[in-house]
Amino acid sequence: MPPGSRKVAITGVALADCGRVDDATPYALHAQAARRALTDAGLDRSLVDGLASAGTGTLAPVEIAEYLGLRPTWVDSTSVGGATWEVMAAHAADAIAAGHANAVLLVYGSTARADIRAGRRTGTLSFGARGPLQFEVPYGHTLIAKYAMAARRHMIEHGTTIEQLAQIAVQARANAALNPEAMFRDPITVDDVLSGPMIADPFTKLHCCIRSDGGAAVLLAAEEYVRDCRTAPVWVLGTGEYVSHVSMSEWPDFTVSPAAVSGRLAFERAGVRPDEIELAQIYDAFTYMTLVTLEDLGFCAKGEGGAFVEKGRLKVEGGDLPVNTDGGGLSAQHPGMRGLFLLVEAVRQLRGEAGARQVRRRPDGSEPRLAVASGTGGWFCSSGTVVLGR
After folding, report:
1. Is the dihedral of CA 205, 210, 157, 291 positive or negative?
2. d(CA 87, CA 52)
3. Distance (Å) of CA 52 to CA 6, 48, 65, 290, 346
4. In whole angstroms, what is the distance from residue 56 CA to residue 297 CA?
5. Helices and strands, number each (H, E), in the chain
6. Of 47, 107, 144, 252, most Cβ neighbours within 10 A?
């Protein structure tokens, strides 16, 4: 088969234990997720010749490979925050298509919540004060403050309301109520969101993601391995990646996220239009991330995100475009760099394995055929978008 011509499928996905996990290390969660993903695929560990990992240890993919008993000939340690896993999926798909690898495992594990509980780290972990960050750190520019500033800019320029942003949290919780694995499932209202403690204006507590433990793994493989898999393949149709800035002063427009570029590239390469997508998994560390990413992926025009998210459009039950069908980072789980969880949920939905939260938008009631997963990293610094189909 000529180099670059192989199709690439996601053949296995899994979550490690998530939520409140006080008795495991990040390495153990990596191993648990990896074993479950390989079992899901029905492929032997010996076939895995590629590994992508970030966020753990000094030499992330080397340490994780050793812990998992793998000796990969292709590795990726790209670390661009929450978008890491969509970017890694793009790199892995390219490597498999080119014949540089046959089966690549993306794996992540974190005890972010348990570490704070045990006093191993604090809740205000710093990104450091070297390089460009030195010009912002003295002014108390926290990560959440940067997202809050961007949200406020969108509200000023486009009339987006705090009630519209709150609707995103409410609908995420409604989806989480259908997910037995979600950390928070009790219904919430717009008033609940608005009346919560202020974290960074305009964000109250429920505008912000939860903090959990957990892990996930995704196995990508060349098309010739699909016939040996236990599950139906979900094909990688197109990918895009983009980095925009790290200094807020270098961000041209606070109302435009890097998904505007990564999404356009992914849809063009997949030969798919946004209006053909049947569900979306979007990084949601804060409610504004969901809103602006919906705009930038082309699901609505710039400035219309507020109106778009009203009236239950993002819900599994009755929504025009179900978004974050597992409850997302706002309600299901958020153990740090959550982008890998987006891919897991998108695949489960396309395979019809999502249980009570299964999306069925097609006229005949069958499972959806097209989904998009879009991760955002840093403070809108990076984006990776992956279009998936079955």
Report:
1. negative
2. 10
3. 20, 11, 9, 26, 19
4. 30
5. 12, 11
6. 107
User: Residue 116's pLDDT is what?
Assistant: 87
pTM for this entry: 0.96
Given a cut of 90, whether residue 132 has pLDDT beyond it is no
- Amino acid present at 193: V
The predicted-structure confidence for 182-191, as pLDDT tens digits, reads as follows 999 999 999 9
What is the C-alpha separation between 261 and 385, in angstroms, rounded? 9
Q: Specify the DSSP class assigned to residue 241.
A: E
Q: What is the mean pLDDT of residues 34-60?
A: 95
CB atoms near residue 77 (< 10 Å): 16
Measure the N-to-C terminal CA separation of the chain; round to a whole number of Å: 22
Quick check: 331 and 172 in contact, CB under 8 A? yes
Phi then psi for residue 373, to 5 deg, are -120, 125
135 confidence band (pLDDT: 50, 70, 90): confident
CA-to-CA distance for 304 and 159, rounded, in angstroms?
9
Chain segment 349-386, per-residue pLDDT in tens: 999 999 999 998 777 888 899 999 999 999 999 999 99
Locate tokens 């509980």: which residue? 117
